[in-house]
Q: What sequence folds into this?
């Protein structure tokens, strides 16, 4: 599902990162800059993709040698208005690239595009999203494929991302570590029995880096290949602070998301990048603990 057009990785002279102010965008800029690439970091301040002048402003930063990495999104998508805004943002990206074509475009999508499955999912699993967030990412992927058919395109679909600096404070490692640091008990949805795959932020940036340097096209999932229950994650977060906070269950108010299980087979990542070793959950939590100031 992913083709490496440069078997030997090569330094990309110029990379434009749209969404450089976000969690994934910041990490991507840092990782690419470490290779010596000329990274053009664009935030909403430089290019507001919902503004009327978004397309020409973005196009002005593009060159025939630039790789464009798009991480910008209003997320998570909670309603139809947010969905439409996200599609307008991608419409501006497409207009910019039509004005100034680039030799390579990488879009950071999401594992939310996949239908639920009791078996570990792969890049070939059905893209049948069950949420507006997944619909948004899949629609954006289709827009890029249909409106920019001549532009080499890579789609990176991360699962749940954790690590220092997450601005969303999402349910899982990021929120649990902050609660434990603040000496606040961690309250789970139900008993926290859902099992999910989590990937550390620097691993997502590394996968993006490799796709850029190999001029990859196609689809790859950014996953660890390991599932862990939210209760186990919460207990591990609590254990990293003293005094140790309690991990509490709570009554569920709705169905368990994804049927309580969402696993991925990382075979493609291992095949393409055999030296890539994802950061383990325990190591990632240790790094988060080190990044948090003492409470």
A:
């Amino acid at each position: 599902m992913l083709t490496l057009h440069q078997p030997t990785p090569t330094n990309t002279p110029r990379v434009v990162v749209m969404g450089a102010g976000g969690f994934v965008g910041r990490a991507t800029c840092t990782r690419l800059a470490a290779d010596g690439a000329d990274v053009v970091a664009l935030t909403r301040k430089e290019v507001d993709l919902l503004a009327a002048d978004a397309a020409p402003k973005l196009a002005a930063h593009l060159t025939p040698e630039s790789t464009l990495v798009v991480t910008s999104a209003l997320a998570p998508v909670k309603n139809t208005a947010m969905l439409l805004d996200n599609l307008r943002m991608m419409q501006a990206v497409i207009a910019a690239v039509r004005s100034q074509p680039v030799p390579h475009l990488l879009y950071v999508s999401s594992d939310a595009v996949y239908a639920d499955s009791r078996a570990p999912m792969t890049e070939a699993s059905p893209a049948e999203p069950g949420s507006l967030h997944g619909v948004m990412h899949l629609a954006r992927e289709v827009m890029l494929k249909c409106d920019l058919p001549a532009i080499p395109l890579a789609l990176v679909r991360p699962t749940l991302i954790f690590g220092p600096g997450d601005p969303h404070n999402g349910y899982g490692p990021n929120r649990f570590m902050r609660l434990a640091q603040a000496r606040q008990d961690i309250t789970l949805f139900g008993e926290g029995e859902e099992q999910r795959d989590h990937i550390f932020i620097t691993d997502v940036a590394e996968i993006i880096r490799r796709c850029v340097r190999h001029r990859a096209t196609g689809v790859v999932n950014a996953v660890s290949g390991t599932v862990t229950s939210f209760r186990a994650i919460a207990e591990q977060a609590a254990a990293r602070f003293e005094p140790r906070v309690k991990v509490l269950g709570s009554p569920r108010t709705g169905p368990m998301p994804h049927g309580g299980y969402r696993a991925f087979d990382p075979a493609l990542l291992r095949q393409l990048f055999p030296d890539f070793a994802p950061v383990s959950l325990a190591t990632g939590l240790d790094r988060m603990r080190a990044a948090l100031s003492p409470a």
